[in-house]
Write a structure and sequence with these properties.
19% helix, 5-stranded mixed sheet
């Protein structure tokens, strides 16, 4: 499965690995993705899932605590919480931090 990561200045298309998060992939492939904590408390890794949201695991409690319902409706997730679960398709994620 293909995963396109759009960081602050770097865009990279990589082979997605089942069970890893969007943030795991960004770190592994050296995409300049904003993050601080990697566990869902800072929300710096917030990203917009443009395509392939159905290929990600369910929204976590940490995401419900940090994001607003309308953000989920718009396609936002926390990169550190969005675990890839699909095997076929394409995911496009854009790092969209608050600051």
């Amino acid at each position: 499965m293909e995963l396109e990561l759009k960081g602050r200045t770097i865009t990279s298309t990589v082979e997605a690995e089942d069970g890893l998060t969007i943030l795991d992939h960004a770190i592994k492939h050296k995409v300049d993705w904003s993050y601080s904590c990697t566990r869902g408390t800072c929300a710096r890794c917030r990203c917009l899932i443009v395509e392939g949201a159905d290929l990600l695991d369910e929204v976590t409690d940490a995401e419900w605590d940090r994001l607003e319902p309308e953000e989920f409706e718009q396609g936002y997730r926390l990169g550190c919480q969005a675990v890839i679960t699909g095997t076929e398709g394409k995911i496009i994620a854009i790092n969209k931090t608050y600051f």
